[in-house]
Q: What sequence folds into this?
DNA sequence: CGTTACACCTGAGGGC
DNA sequence: TGCCCTCAGGTGTAAC
Protein backbone atom coordinates (compact mmCIF):
# COMPACT_ATOMS: atom_id res chain seq x y z
CA UNK A 1 0.00 0.00 0.00
CA UNK A 2 2.13 2.72 1.26
CA UNK A 3 3.88 5.03 -1.14
CA UNK A 4 5.50 8.36 -0.36
CA UNK A 5 2.27 10.18 0.64
CA UNK A 6 1.15 7.47 3.05
CA UNK A 7 4.63 7.24 4.57
CA UNK A 8 4.81 11.03 4.92
CA UNK A 9 1.37 11.23 6.55
CA UNK A 10 2.45 8.44 8.88
CA UNK A 11 5.61 10.36 9.73
CA UNK A 12 3.79 13.62 10.44
CA UNK A 13 1.08 12.05 12.57
CA UNK A 14 3.31 9.60 14.40
CA UNK A 15 6.05 12.07 15.29
CA UNK A 16 4.13 14.04 17.95
CA UNK A 17 2.96 10.78 19.53
CA UNK A 18 6.39 9.19 19.57
CA UNK A 19 9.15 11.74 19.99
CA UNK A 20 10.54 12.26 23.46
CA UNK A 21 8.98 9.13 24.99
CA UNK A 22 11.18 6.54 26.67
CA UNK A 23 10.76 2.95 25.42
CA UNK A 24 10.11 0.64 28.36
CA UNK A 25 9.29 -2.64 26.62
CA UNK A 26 9.39 -4.15 23.12
CA UNK A 27 7.10 -6.97 21.97
CA UNK A 28 7.61 -8.85 18.69
CA UNK A 29 6.56 -11.93 16.77
CA UNK A 30 9.00 -14.77 16.07
CA UNK A 31 12.06 -14.19 13.88
CA UNK A 32 11.28 -13.97 10.15
CA UNK A 33 12.64 -12.13 7.13
CA UNK A 34 10.47 -9.24 8.31
CA UNK A 35 13.19 -8.64 10.90
CA UNK A 36 16.41 -7.63 9.17
CA UNK A 37 17.61 -7.24 12.76
CA UNK A 38 16.58 -10.26 14.84
CA UNK A 39 13.90 -9.56 17.50
CA UNK A 40 16.27 -10.33 20.37
CA UNK A 41 18.88 -7.72 19.45
CA UNK A 42 16.11 -5.30 18.47
CA UNK A 43 14.73 -5.51 22.01
CA UNK A 44 18.19 -5.17 23.54
CA UNK A 45 19.04 -2.03 21.64
CA UNK A 46 15.64 -0.31 21.80
CA UNK A 47 14.83 -0.72 25.47
CA UNK A 48 15.47 2.47 27.46
CA UNK A 49 15.94 4.63 24.34
CA UNK A 50 14.11 7.81 23.37
CA UNK A 51 13.21 8.57 19.74
CA UNK A 52 14.48 12.08 19.08
CA UNK A 53 13.64 12.48 15.39
CA UNK A 54 11.46 10.81 12.75
CA UNK A 55 12.54 11.23 9.13
CA UNK A 56 11.53 9.91 5.75
CA UNK A 57 13.59 8.92 2.72
CA UNK A 58 11.52 7.69 -0.20
CA UNK A 59 9.23 5.07 1.36
CA UNK A 60 11.49 4.47 4.39
CA UNK A 61 10.99 5.89 7.86
CA UNK A 62 14.04 6.53 10.04
CA UNK A 63 13.50 6.80 13.77
CA UNK A 64 16.61 8.39 15.26
CA UNK A 65 17.34 7.32 18.82
CA UNK A 66 19.14 9.18 21.60
CA UNK A 67 21.66 6.32 21.57
CA UNK A 68 22.74 7.34 18.06
CA UNK A 69 21.20 4.19 16.58
CA UNK A 70 18.55 4.52 13.86
CA UNK A 71 15.47 2.33 13.59
CA UNK A 72 14.74 1.76 9.91
CA UNK A 73 11.12 0.96 8.97
CA UNK A 74 9.50 0.04 5.65
CA UNK A 75 5.77 -0.63 5.41
CA UNK A 76 5.94 -2.97 2.40
CA UNK A 77 2.50 -3.61 0.89
CA UNK A 78 0.29 -4.07 3.95
CA UNK A 79 2.19 -2.39 6.78
CA UNK A 80 0.18 -0.43 9.32
CA UNK A 81 1.89 1.86 11.82
CA UNK A 82 -0.32 3.42 14.48
CA UNK A 83 -0.71 4.16 18.15
CA UNK A 84 -3.22 2.48 20.44
CA UNK A 85 -3.79 1.35 23.95
CA UNK A 86 -3.23 -2.37 23.53
CA UNK A 87 -5.48 -4.42 25.76
CA UNK A 88 -4.50 -7.80 27.23
CA UNK A 89 -0.98 -8.18 25.84
CA UNK A 90 -1.04 -11.96 26.10
CA UNK A 91 -4.51 -12.36 24.64
CA UNK A 92 -4.06 -12.77 20.92
CA UNK A 93 -7.04 -12.04 18.78
CA UNK A 94 -7.91 -14.84 16.36
CA UNK A 95 -9.09 -12.49 13.64
CA UNK A 96 -6.74 -12.63 10.67
CA UNK A 97 -7.64 -9.87 8.27
CA UNK A 98 -5.39 -7.76 6.15
CA UNK A 99 -7.08 -4.49 6.83
CA UNK A 100 -7.71 -3.20 10.29
CA UNK A 101 -10.66 -0.84 10.38
CA UNK A 102 -10.14 2.45 12.24
CA UNK A 103 -12.72 1.47 14.85
CA UNK A 104 -10.75 -1.68 15.63
CA UNK A 105 -7.71 0.37 16.50
CA UNK A 106 -9.49 2.05 19.38
CA UNK A 107 -9.81 -1.30 21.14
CA UNK A 108 -6.75 -2.88 19.59
CA UNK A 109 -5.70 -6.37 20.59
CA UNK A 110 -2.30 -7.51 19.33
CA UNK A 111 -2.76 -10.40 16.87
CA UNK A 112 -0.39 -12.68 14.94
CA UNK A 113 0.32 -9.91 12.44
CA UNK A 114 1.45 -7.46 15.12
CA UNK A 115 5.19 -7.79 14.59
CA UNK A 116 6.45 -4.89 16.65
CA UNK A 117 4.93 -3.11 19.63
CA UNK A 118 6.73 -0.45 21.59
CA UNK A 119 5.58 0.31 25.13
CA UNK A 120 6.62 3.48 26.93
CA UNK A 121 7.59 4.49 30.43
CA UNK A 122 4.73 7.01 30.56
CA UNK A 123 2.27 4.12 30.25
CA UNK A 124 0.37 5.90 27.48
CA UNK A 125 -0.44 4.51 24.01
CA UNK A 126 1.80 1.89 22.40
CA UNK A 127 3.31 2.30 18.94
CA UNK A 128 2.28 -0.67 16.82
CA UNK A 129 3.64 -2.04 13.53
CA UNK A 130 1.25 -4.56 12.02
CA UNK A 131 1.85 -6.20 8.63
CA UNK A 132 -0.15 -9.13 7.27
CA UNK A 133 2.04 -10.00 4.28
CA UNK A 134 5.32 -9.31 6.03
CA UNK A 135 6.79 -7.50 3.03
CA UNK A 136 7.61 -4.71 5.45
CA UNK A 137 11.03 -4.45 7.08
CA UNK A 138 12.54 -3.47 10.40
CA UNK A 139 16.24 -2.89 10.89
CA UNK A 140 18.20 -1.33 13.69
CA UNK A 141 21.13 0.59 12.24
CA UNK A 142 23.95 0.92 14.77
CA UNK A 143 25.24 4.45 15.24
CA UNK A 144 27.09 5.74 12.19
CA UNK A 145 26.41 2.68 10.05
CA UNK A 146 24.81 2.93 6.61
CA UNK A 147 22.31 0.67 4.95
CA UNK A 148 22.66 -0.58 1.37
CA UNK A 149 18.93 -0.10 0.78
CA UNK A 150 19.14 3.58 1.69
CA UNK A 151 22.40 4.07 -0.16
CA UNK A 152 20.81 2.87 -3.39
CA UNK A 153 17.90 5.36 -3.27
CA UNK A 154 17.76 8.12 -5.85
CA UNK A 155 16.61 11.69 -5.18
CA UNK A 156 13.45 11.95 -3.07
CA UNK A 157 10.36 12.34 -5.25
CA UNK A 158 9.36 15.64 -3.60
CA UNK A 159 12.79 17.10 -4.38
CA UNK A 160 13.23 15.64 -7.87
CA UNK A 161 13.32 17.71 -11.05
CA UNK A 162 12.45 16.87 -14.62
CA UNK A 163 16.17 16.92 -15.36
CA UNK A 164 16.75 14.09 -12.84
CA UNK A 165 14.20 11.96 -14.68
CA UNK A 166 15.37 12.95 -18.14
CA UNK A 167 19.01 12.11 -17.34
CA UNK A 168 18.03 8.54 -16.41
CA UNK A 169 15.29 8.15 -19.02
CA UNK A 170 17.40 9.07 -22.03
CA UNK A 171 19.60 6.01 -21.42
CA UNK A 172 16.81 3.49 -20.96
CA UNK A 173 14.49 1.60 -23.26
CA UNK A 174 12.12 0.37 -20.52
CA UNK A 175 8.63 1.90 -20.26
CA UNK A 176 8.65 5.33 -18.61
CA UNK A 177 6.43 3.99 -15.84
CA UNK A 178 9.04 1.36 -14.98
CA UNK A 179 11.56 4.18 -14.46
CA UNK A 180 9.18 6.06 -12.20
CA UNK A 181 8.90 2.94 -10.04
CA UNK A 182 12.71 2.51 -9.92
CA UNK A 183 13.61 3.76 -6.43
CA UNK A 184 17.22 4.16 -7.54
CA UNK A 185 16.18 6.93 -9.95
CA UNK A 186 13.51 8.76 -7.93
CA UNK A 187 12.56 7.51 -4.46
CA UNK A 188 8.98 7.37 -3.22
CA UNK A 189 6.73 6.88 -6.27
CA UNK A 190 4.71 3.65 -6.27
CA UNK A 191 2.05 2.09 -8.46
CA UNK A 192 -0.85 4.42 -7.65
CA UNK A 193 1.03 7.70 -8.01
CA UNK A 194 2.95 6.57 -11.10
CA UNK A 195 -0.38 5.95 -12.86
CA UNK A 196 -1.98 9.13 -11.51
CA UNK A 197 1.07 11.28 -12.28
CA UNK A 198 1.35 9.99 -15.85
CA UNK A 199 -2.35 10.67 -16.37
CA UNK A 200 -2.00 14.26 -15.18
CA UNK A 201 1.06 14.66 -17.43
CA UNK A 202 -0.86 13.09 -20.36
CA UNK A 203 1.97 10.62 -21.09
CA UNK A 204 1.23 6.96 -21.80
CA UNK A 205 2.86 4.65 -19.22
CA UNK A 206 4.16 2.27 -21.87
CA UNK A 207 6.15 4.91 -23.78
CA UNK A 208 9.82 3.98 -24.10
CA UNK A 209 11.75 6.09 -21.59
CA UNK A 210 14.34 7.20 -24.17
CA UNK A 211 11.54 8.62 -26.32
CA UNK A 212 10.19 10.91 -23.62
CA UNK A 213 11.28 14.52 -24.14
CA UNK A 214 12.85 16.80 -21.52
CA UNK A 215 9.66 18.86 -21.47
CA UNK A 216 7.59 15.77 -20.87
CA UNK A 217 9.94 14.70 -18.07
CA UNK A 218 9.37 18.10 -16.46
CA UNK A 219 5.63 17.61 -16.76
CA UNK A 220 5.77 14.07 -15.38
CA UNK A 221 7.80 14.99 -12.30
CA UNK A 222 5.68 18.07 -11.60
CA UNK A 223 2.49 16.04 -12.03
CA UNK A 224 3.68 13.27 -9.71
CA UNK A 225 4.56 15.90 -7.11
CA UNK A 226 1.21 17.68 -7.47
CA UNK A 227 -0.67 14.41 -7.07
CA UNK A 228 1.40 13.32 -4.08
CA UNK A 229 1.19 16.69 -2.32
CA UNK A 230 -2.56 16.65 -2.74
CA UNK A 231 -2.66 13.10 -1.38
CA UNK A 232 -0.66 14.15 1.69
CA UNK A 233 -3.20 16.94 2.26
CA UNK A 234 -6.04 14.44 2.26
CA UNK A 235 -4.25 11.91 4.45
CA UNK A 236 -3.06 9.46 1.77
CA UNK A 237 -4.89 6.66 -0.07
CA UNK A 238 -6.73 4.07 2.01
CA UNK A 239 -7.67 1.46 -0.57
CA UNK A 240 -7.31 -1.79 1.34
CA UNK A 241 -4.94 -1.72 4.27
CA UNK A 242 -3.58 1.71 4.91
CA UNK A 243 -4.62 3.44 8.12
CA UNK A 244 -3.32 6.61 9.64
CA UNK A 245 -1.36 6.46 12.88
CA UNK A 246 -4.38 8.06 14.53
CA UNK A 247 -6.69 5.31 13.28
CA UNK A 248 -8.36 7.34 10.53
CA UNK A 249 -8.64 6.61 6.80
CA UNK A 250 -6.98 8.71 4.14
CA UNK A 251 -9.10 10.49 1.56
CA UNK A 252 -7.13 10.38 -1.65
CA UNK A 253 -8.70 7.15 -2.95
CA UNK A 254 -11.76 9.29 -3.73
CA UNK A 255 -9.71 11.59 -5.98
CA UNK A 256 -8.08 8.92 -8.13
CA UNK A 257 -8.55 9.50 -11.85
CA UNK A 258 -7.29 6.22 -13.33
CA UNK A 259 -5.87 3.82 -10.71
CA UNK A 260 -8.19 0.81 -10.28
CA UNK A 261 -10.78 2.50 -12.52
CA UNK A 262 -10.64 0.10 -15.47
CA UNK A 263 -13.66 0.46 -17.75
CA UNK A 264 -14.87 3.64 -16.04
CA UNK A 265 -14.98 6.93 -17.97
CA UNK A 266 -11.95 9.22 -18.07
CA UNK A 267 -12.89 12.32 -16.04
CA UNK A 268 -11.46 14.54 -18.82
CA UNK A 269 -12.68 13.00 -22.09
CA UNK A 270 -15.05 10.21 -21.10
CA UNK A 271 -13.14 7.42 -22.85
CA UNK A 272 -12.94 4.09 -21.00
CA UNK A 273 -9.92 3.72 -18.75
CA UNK A 274 -7.69 0.87 -19.91
CA UNK A 275 -5.82 -1.58 -17.67
CA UNK A 276 -2.78 -3.51 -18.84
CA UNK A 277 0.20 -5.14 -17.21
CA UNK A 278 3.55 -3.37 -17.45
CA UNK A 279 6.61 -4.79 -15.75
CA UNK A 280 4.39 -7.18 -13.76
CA UNK A 281 2.45 -4.24 -12.35
CA UNK A 282 -1.15 -3.39 -13.03
CA UNK A 283 -1.25 -0.16 -15.06
CA UNK A 284 -4.16 2.18 -15.77
CA UNK A 285 -4.45 5.00 -18.31
CA UNK A 286 -6.75 6.90 -20.63
CA UNK A 287 -6.12 5.74 -24.23
CA UNK A 288 -7.28 9.09 -25.60
CA UNK A 289 -5.68 11.63 -23.21
CA UNK A 290 -2.33 9.87 -22.82
CA UNK A 291 -0.04 9.54 -25.86
C1' DC B 1 24.88 -3.00 -17.28
C1' DG B 2 19.61 -3.10 -18.32
C1' DT B 3 15.61 -5.79 -18.45
C1' DT B 4 12.53 -9.35 -17.10
C1' DA B 5 10.60 -13.23 -14.33
C1' DC B 6 9.89 -14.72 -10.06
C1' DA B 7 9.88 -15.18 -5.20
C1' DC B 8 8.64 -13.64 -0.63
C1' DC B 9 3.40 -13.99 2.26
C1' DT B 10 -1.58 -13.62 3.52
C1' DG B 11 -6.29 -12.54 2.63
C1' DA B 12 -10.28 -11.06 -0.24
C1' DG B 13 -13.31 -11.78 -3.81
C1' DG B 14 -15.18 -14.05 -7.93
C1' DG B 15 -16.63 -18.20 -10.58
C1' DC B 16 -18.28 -22.78 -10.41
C1' DT C 1 -20.09 -24.28 1.71
C1' DG C 2 -15.71 -25.33 -0.50
C1' DC C 3 -12.19 -25.19 -4.02
C1' DC C 4 -9.46 -22.88 -7.19
C1' DC C 5 -8.19 -18.96 -9.42
C1' DT C 6 -6.57 -14.03 -9.63
C1' DC C 7 -5.45 -9.88 -7.54
C1' DA C 8 -3.15 -6.55 -4.17
C1' DG C 9 0.12 0.91 -2.39
C1' DG C 10 6.92 -3.36 -2.71
C1' DT C 11 11.41 -4.94 -3.49
C1' DG C 12 15.54 -8.20 -3.72
C1' DT C 13 17.61 -11.57 -6.59
C1' DA C 14 18.66 -14.61 -10.38
C1' DA C 15 18.91 -15.35 -15.15
C1' DC C 16 18.98 -13.82 -19.87
A:
Amino acid sequence: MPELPEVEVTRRELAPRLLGRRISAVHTTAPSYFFLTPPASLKRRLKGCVVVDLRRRGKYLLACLDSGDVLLLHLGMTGQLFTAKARSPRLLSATARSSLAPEQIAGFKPDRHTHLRLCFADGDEDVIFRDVRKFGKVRLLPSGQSDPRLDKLGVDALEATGADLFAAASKRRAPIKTLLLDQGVIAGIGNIYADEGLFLARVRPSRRADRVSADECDRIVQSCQAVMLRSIETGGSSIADYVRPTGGDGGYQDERKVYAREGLPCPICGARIVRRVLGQRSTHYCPRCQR
About this structure: Residues 1-3, 5-6, 59, 74-78, 98, 133, 135-137, 149, 181, 183, 190-193, 236-237, 239-242, 259-260, 281-282 of chain A lie near DNA strand C (CB under 10 Å from a C1'). The mean pLDDT of chain A is 94. The radius of gyration of chain A is 20 Å.
